Structures are given as C-alpha cells and as structure tokens.
Amino acid sequence: MNEALTARPGPVVPREVRTFAAEKGVDRYLGAAIELARRAFPVSGLAVSLARDAEDETHQYIALDIEAGGRTADELLAGQRVWSGEIARTCQSRQAVYFVLGWR
C-alpha cells in the first residue's frame, strides 16, 4: 500500500498548546497549521508542543516537529518549500511567528 495514502491519526495537541493558542489569538489557525505541516510532510510523524526561543526566552511558540528519520534531504527540502510557501496563506504573517516547523 502506498505510504502517502495510508490514513494516519492526527497529532495529539496538548492542553497547554490549545491554551497558548487561545491566549495569543491564533487558535483559529492551529488546525490549519497542523494540516499544512501534514500536507508538506505526508509520510512523516508530527508532534505538536509548546516551546521557547533559544535566544529570546520570552518568546514562546507552537512547535510542529516532523519526524525526519528516513527522509532524504530532497524530501525535507521539498516539504520545507511547501510550508514556507503556504504558511502566509494559512494565517496572517504577524501571527505566523507563533508556528514553527522543526525536525526531530
């Protein structure tokens, strides 16, 4: 069976992520950002968590971490291009800073 066509469950969204999204006014974009990450990386696992910027600990964001193991550099780059090209259409740019795509 084609791995891309296999149904996979959505990621668990912890309560603290939902609370943070509501506090920052980005809760209406949370589902769309998750779906964008899943579209960009259709065969990778996805974890959603709350994280802090390493350089500015006052800045928190919603981390959308893709399971990168087993993916080629070309696959990761292609997914990153999809994410980068569509996140501005998914939510307003001043609110997009609260969604960060990462690898694990």
Explain what the structure shows.
- 44% of the residues lie in helices and 18% in strands.
- By secondary structure, it is an alpha+beta fold.
- The chain has a domain at 56-104.
- A three-stranded mixed sheet has the order 1-2-3, with helices on one face.
* Mean pLDDT across residues: 89
Secondary-structure element order, as H and E? HHEEHHE
Biggest sheet strand line-up = 1-2-3
Shape: globular
> How much of the sequence is in beta strands?
15-25%
Helical percentage = 40-55%
Over all CA atoms, what is the radius of gyration?
14 Å
Main sheet specs: 3 strands, mixed
Structural class designation: alpha+beta
Q: Which oligomerization state do the chains in this entry correspond to?
A: single chain
Give unreliable regions as ranges.
1-6
Number of strands: 3
Secondary structure layout plus pairing:
Blueprint: H1 15-24, H2 27-40, E1 46-52, E2 60-66, H3 73-90, H4 93-96, E3 99-103
